[in-house]
Design brief:
By secondary structure, this protein is an alpha+beta fold. The chain has helices at about 5-10, 25-30, 50-60, 105-110, 140-145, 155-160, 160-175, 180-190, 200-210, 220-240, 245-250, 265-275, 280-295, 300-310, 315-330, 330-340, 345-355, 355-370, 375-395, 410-415, 420-435, 445-455, and strands spanning about 20-25, 40-45, 65-70, 75-80, 80-85, 90, 100-105, 120-125, 125-130, 145, 175-180, 395-400, 400.
Length: about 450
Amino acid sequence: MSSTTNIIPLLHPYLSPETNLYLVGGYVRDRLLDIESKDIDLVTTGDPYAIARRLHAEIEGTTTPIEFRRFGTVQLKVKGMNIEIVRARKESYRPDSRNPIVSPGTLQDDILRRDFTINCLMIKVNQPEKVIDLTRKGMDDLNNRLIRTPLDPDKTFTDDPLRMMRAVVLAAKLGFTITDECAQAIKRNIDRMKIITPARIRDEFQKILSISIGAEKSPPDFKKSNEAVTRGIDLLIELGLMNCIIPELSNIQSIDKYGDYHQSDAYEHTKRTILTCEYADPIIRLAILLYNIGKWQRKAAEPEIAQNIMQRLKFSKSEIAEVTTLVRNYERIQKLYDKPYRPSTLNNLINDVEPYLSQLLIIAEAEAKALNQNNLQVMLTQIQNMRNEINRLKNFQRNGKIQLPINGSDIMEIFEIEAGTKVGLILKEVEKWIIEGEIAPGDRHTTLTRLQKYKHKGIL
């Protein structure tokens, strides 16, 4: 049973009949759409702190409530579900901030301060059979799959410009349509995005890149997930919001096909690569986007372009390291599956790219499918062979290094030399023999015999 059906009977026994507590927001929307949700918003005309304390006292395993009295809210976890209870309020905004000035209000006030009509629907916990629609538009918009604001969209978006990106997140994730009135208001109010911090913009963009439809299943529906992601990117560009996130991405729309393999323009190829990726990972999707920005602009410094964009959006150092590593080695792995390669070349790739090699192979497969060449199956077979060879080579390694059946002391004894550079070079040659399959790992006897022969012939 999903959390959307569990929460009402869980709360109901601990509330008196006169308690005015309502489920509201995304939880109600998702409940009506039969989508799993563990983030639960509640609004009350009573005391949210008293309700939270009651739940904490009565329901085993409930976390201690965290109060935010400035905003009239309290947060806690109940049975693994994130719950926020807010006192019904009114909001006003200063021109230079999206942080509201709050004051007590009615349920109607609280509903009209919200972002979209589909998030204004309420269910009273004590009367769960009835959906309350104070806007008189929410249920119709939910049924017609529309994103609409409860007030004039210019006011809604001026008050909190981040709602413009949230409109795109919802449209992409749910497959809904942003009404023309809202779309035009977004275009008119783009300049308001200047008051939003890069980190908040990044967070909303990440929600699009992170879309995973059917995530409760294993695996999720990659086709629907990727279609939703590309739909979101399309909308960001169409509405002008991408200029506030990654303006460089908007620029590649005007670039024609580039290179011998690509049969479409730069932007369509980028989207097709995401669409064919069988992995719902936001970092992989971002790496595909940022690699293609540098490539299609005919720039030689794709990793630096990716790094600059991610630093601007305040991504973490670990996320930047992963994406720049993937971008830097994107073409390198393509060259390996395009033509024959030596195992030692692949081993160098392992040493340079780990721990991101599996992600790089996922991107390589997506890129191959996006190219849609006649030899696609051959390319995919080559990538799988490469994956098998990587696994073989990694089996030889311990702590990232090939385990040799001999050591430096053996080299010094056989070649009658002192410790120095030559010892290291000979050990490197032995490592190459193992990688190339010329001697078996752990075969000390064959290795020593071969070294003796090389010594007598003066090869090493």
